[in-house]
Specification:
Length: 335
């Protein structure tokens, strides 16, 4: 059963006509469980469903956590939050998760955001300005000027740190949708930067194609996809079937190495949690990247995958929550 916390809403901020930031106030005893890295997300219980929303706050900003939610047509979670959440409300939340975060904030960063994709990117940007020393370039695409989330905050940051931060806005109402060639032109001067991309699927696909054509390596290109969860990670997971056949498993996690006999029919994440390891996860449905790990040797089968693309899989990345072993020995690394 995941570790569930009840957080109190301290403030709701109207960012645009269809976007709201929800600010949670942590109690002192909750602070440790909610330590997070820039670019991670929270999973919120909304009725009988669960939704993942990226943190737009940055760790250095204090004990308040902020997620930013943009209303989407037919979106159960986003519409409920924008219409109903008020200061003083309480929400069940899972601890931070996700791997969309820089390993080194001294790197030069090229950040692409489309619409509400600015949410995790904003957390990364603010942290890099505070803790790092590299250059930061943000290319931010929106429908029109009124839909630009964090417009004033971004302008203030760019004015305050012009030697390090450049913000380039792309407005569909003025320029149309950005093409792959146009995004290549914008990105070309920053070849070699670490790239982070978040936004609607067409924007992500176009940006990824532009960067790959410019020679960006998979290890320096990071993507965060927004997917509505079909399952409910707040529910108790059903017990796995008992099976006598096992695979030899070696796991590198948090700088420590572990070796186990892994039952052939048990999912990797469930097995590691049963063994008391603090393996990262959130949705347990194959619909987010929080449990992603790398297969160093051996082979596994993913029962469901709605987030990783062919390049991820070619690099050996798998979702632990959906992986069962295919070979007699498997070695896994959490990066």
């Amino acid at each position: 059963m995941p570790e569930i916390h009840t957080l109190t809403v301290a403030e709701v901020i109207a960012e645009t006509a269809d976007a709201r930031s929800v600010v949670f106030e942590l109690k002192p005893e909750q602070a440790e469980a909610f330590r997070y890295r820039p670019g991670q997300f929270l999973t919120l219980r909304i009725g009988t469903a669960a939704r993942c929303y990226s943190l737009s706050s940055a760790p250095h900003e204090g004990t308040r956590l902020k997620v930013t939610v943009k209303r989407t047509e037919g979106g159960y979670g986003s519409n409920w939050i924008c219409d109903n959440i008020r200061s003083g409300a309480t929400v069940d939340v899972l601890p931070p998760a996700g791997i969309f975060t820089p390993a080194d904030f001294d790197e030069n960063l090229l950040l692409f955001a489309g619409g509400s994709g600015i949410t995790p990117v904003m957390s990364i940007l603010k942290t890099a300005l505070r803790q790092g020393g590299g250059r930061i370039v943000l290319i931010y695409a929106n429908r029109d000027e009124r839909s630009v989330i964090f417009r004033e905050e971004l302008a203030a940051l760019a004015k305050e740190r012009p030697e390090r931060l450049v913000v380039l806005h792309w407005l569909e109402s003025v320029q149309g949708l950005p093409s792959q060639d146009q995004l290549q032109t914008l990105a070309r001067p920053f070849t070699g930067f670490e790239a982070f991309v978040c936004g609607p699927a067409p924007f992500m696909s176009t940006t990824k194609g532009a960067l790959k054509d410019l020679g960006w390596s998979r290890k320096r290109l990071h993507l965060e996809k927004f997917v509505s969860l079909g399952g409910n990670p707040f529910a108790t997971a059903p017990p796995e079937p008992d099976c006598g056949e096992t695979t030899g498993l070696r796991v590198d996690l948090d700088g420590e190495q572990h070796e186990f006999a892994w039952p052939r029919q048990q999912k990797l994440l469930d097995f590691l949690l049963d063994k008391g390891l603090d393996a990262p996860y959130s949705c347990r449905e194959g619909q987010c990247s929080a449990c992603a790990c790398r297969i160093v040797s051996g082979e596994v089968k993913m029962l469901n995958n709605e987030i990783l693309d062919s390049d991820d899989i070619a690099e050996g990345i798998v979702l632990a929550c959906q992986s069962v072993p295919l070979t007699d020995d498997v070695s896994v690394s959490y990066e």
